[in-house]
Amino acid sequence: MQFVLDGKTITATPGQTILKAAEAAGVYIPRLCAYKDLIPHGSCRVCSVRVNGRIQAACVQTVSSGAIVEHDTEELREFRRDVIDLLFVEGNHYCMFCEKSGLCELQALAYRFGITAPKYPLLNPKRDIDMSHPDVYLDHNRCILCGRCVRVSQDLDHKNVFQFVNRGLEKRLQVNGEALAATDLRVTDEVVASCPVGALMKKRVGYAVPVGDRPFDAQPIGADIESGKGGVA
Amino acid sequence: MKSSTATGVEDVCRKFGNDRTRMMDIVIAVQRRFGCVSTEAMELIARACGTQRVEVESVVTFYAFLSVKPQGRVVIRLCNDIIDWMKGYQDVADAMAKELGVTMGETTADGAITLTHTACIGMSDQAPAALVNDVVVTQLTPERAREVVRDLRRHLDPSQLVTMVGDGHNAHPLVRSMVRNNIRHRGPVHFAEFESGSALRRALARPPEAVVKDIKDSRLRGRGGAGFPAGVKWELARHAPGERRWVVCNADEGEPGTFKDRVLLTERAHQMVEGMTIAGYAIGSDAGIIYLRGEYRYLLAYLEAVLDERRRAGLLGRDILDTPGFHFDIRIQLGAGAYICGEETALISSCEGLRGDPKNRPPFPVEKGYLDLPTIVNNVETYCCVSRILLQGAAWFAAMGTARTTGTKVLSIAGDCRKPGVYEVPFGITPDELLEMAEADNPGAMLIGGPCRQMIGPGRFSGRICYDDLATGGAIMIFNRARNQLEIAEHYLDFFIEESCGHCTPCRVGLIQLKRLVHKVVHGAGEPADLQAMRDLSRFIAQMSRCGLGQTAPNPVLGALDGFPALYEGLVAERKPGLLSTFDLASAVVDAERRVGRQSQYV
Which of A109, A163, A185 has the most B C-beta neighbours within 10 Å, making it the best mutation to test the interface with B? Predict the structure, then answer.
C-alpha cells in the first residue's frame, strides 16, 4: 500500500507503523520512547506527525492507504522542540558531566534540533539515585519516563523489574523490590542497554569510549537512517 | 503461623478468583479491610494472582482513594471544586482542620481520622460537600463541619452522620443518603414513567439488526460529551471479529460540575440497565460492566439489588424473557478516585485491573476493547435514552432537539443561581433560557460542559446547547459578574495537573509549565509576551497530547483569554529591561518571606 509523506509517495506494508515505513524509506522521524519492535508506548510524542490533518504519534499510528502525512514542517519541528525542551526541564539533566554524553538520545535530539538552552523554567525536582545493585545504577534525575525499560524487561528479558507508579507529575519509575539490588536484574539483561538517557547505567564502564569519540559526537541522531544504514531503535 | 493480614488478603484474592484482571476489586477490598494496601499486602496479592509486587503498586498508587501508607479509620474527603469554593469550602476546611488539630492531608495523632481534599464528587448542587468514607455529607457550614468532626470523634461511624435522608431513592433502605436529587425539570425521555422490561420486550420482538437500525434512525449521539453516534458504534462492534463482545456503561461522571448521572443512577437504574441489556442483544454480547466511580459507592448496594431484582424477573441472566439463546449479565466495577477513568480506554484499563492509563488508539474499543474483545462504551444517560427509543420509536426521539443533535439532554446546573439541580430539556435550548429557569443571579459567565469544554460570556448566552454550537456532557456552571475568570482557569489547571495520568510528555509536563505562566500573570508579574506564550503552549498541549484530558485541559485558559481578554491584558505590563521574563520573582522569594514573616515590596 502507499501513502504520502511530505509530498513523497512511500510504499508500506499493511499494519506497519508510519515510523517504521518512513524509516524503511530512509526518512528519520525523531523518537525517544520507540524501541526496536516492542509494542509502541506512544508517550514521549517526539515522533508526532500530522495524519490527514490530525496530529498522531508515528510510532503508534499504522499506515492507512492514501494517507497524507506531514512530518518535516515548521510547526511540527517547533512542537518536537517543545517536547524535548519539556523533558529537559522536567528532570535534572547535567549533560556537561554526564557519562552518557554522546550516547544519550535526548541530548542528541537537542543537538539535532539546535536547542542550546531550555525555553521553559527548570522544575529542579528532588529525585533519588539507586546505587544498591553491584553492576547497575538507576538515576531517577535523568529518567524521562519513556517506559523502554518497563517493556524491554517484560518482553525481551522476560522479567518484570520495572513499572510506573503514581500519576501525573508524580509519576516515576519503580523497581520490583526495595531497591535495584533486591530485583532479579542482571547486568547482561538487554534492559540495561535500552535506556535512551543516563538513567539506567552500567557501573565502571562510563568512559571506556572517550567523550568526543561517541556515536552522536560524530554525526546527528538519525543520520544512519537517512543514509540508509538502518536505525538505532 | 500466618499473620492475620496474610489470611485476610488471601481471602480477598480468592473471592475474586485470584484473577489479576480483577486487581481493582482486590485492592479496593484490601484497602477497606486494612485501611491501606501495605507493602506486605502487595506482596501477598502479587503472589496470589501470579504477578509482581511492582505491578500491584503501580495500580494502587494510581488511584486517589487507595493508599500504600495507613490512613485514618475514617477519611474525610472534602470536595474542593470551584463551586465548593464559591459556597464556602475554605471556611469549612479551616473549621474541620482546627477541630481535628491537623492540616489538610494529615491524620490525627491517634490514627483515627484523616482530613484531605478531593476533586468534584458530583454534589455541586449541594456544595460544600464531603465524602466521609463512603458517606456523603452535603451543604456543610463551618458549624456543621465542627459537629461532623465531634460526632465522628465519638463513634467513628460515618453512617451515623446520616440523620435525615434525601428525596426519591436516596431514602431507599439500601441507599439512605442525605443527598437530594433536585430534579427541577422532567422531560419525556428520562423522567417519564418507565416500566421495567417494557423496552426490552419491544427489542426482543425484533431482530438485533433492526434494533441497531432503530438506534441509528434515532440519530442518538453519545451523551458523554464527544457525541459519537451510538448506532454507528454498535454496528461497528456488532461486526467486529471476536469470540465475545462487551457492553460497558460509563458511570464515572467526574467532569467537575456534573451530577446528572448520579440522579439517573438513583432514579432510573432500571431504565439504564435495560438499555445495556438491549445493547447486549443488539451487538451479540452476553456480558456487561457498569463502571461506577468510587465517589458513588453509596449507590453500590442499591444498584446490586437492582441487578438482582432483574435476574429474578428474568430480565438478566440466561434465556432472557424466555428468548432462547439470549444470555446477558452485568457486573459492577468500582473505581477509586481517578478522573481520567471517564475516558473510555482508561476506563477499560481500569476494568482490566491496570492503572487507569488511556490506551493508544487505534485500535478502538469497538474492535479491541475490554480484554482485547469488541466493546461498546456508552454512558448512563445514553443507555437510558436507548430504552426510551425502543419504547417510543426512533422517529419520536429524532423529532426532538435540533437537526443534528436529537432528543433531550439532562443537564446539571450549579453555581450562582437559586435553583441548582437537574433539568431535562430538549437540545437546542439557549443558555439564556437556562439562566432564567435556574434563576441565576447577575450572570457573568457560564462554563458549558465543565472545564474541559468552554467558558462563555454573555455574548454567547443566546447560542444553542447542541453538538454543533455549545457542546456539553451535562455540566453547566453559572458564575456571577463578581467571579474572577482567571482564578477559575488557574483552579482547573491545578485539577488537570492532579488528574493527568502522566503518560505523555505534553500533558504531564506542559500543564505544569502552563500553570506557572498563568500563575505569574494572575499574580501581576506577567508581561504582554506571556499572553502569547500561554496561547502557544495551550495549543501545543491540546494538539500533541495523547488523550482527551490533555487535548482539552488548556480550554479554561484559552476560554478566559478569548472570552475575557481585558482581564488578562489588565494584569500584564512591560517589564524593566534586563529582567528575565521566565523568572518569577514572587515565587522565588516565598521561602524568604516565610522566614522573615512579611511580604516583600518590589516593583
Answer: A163
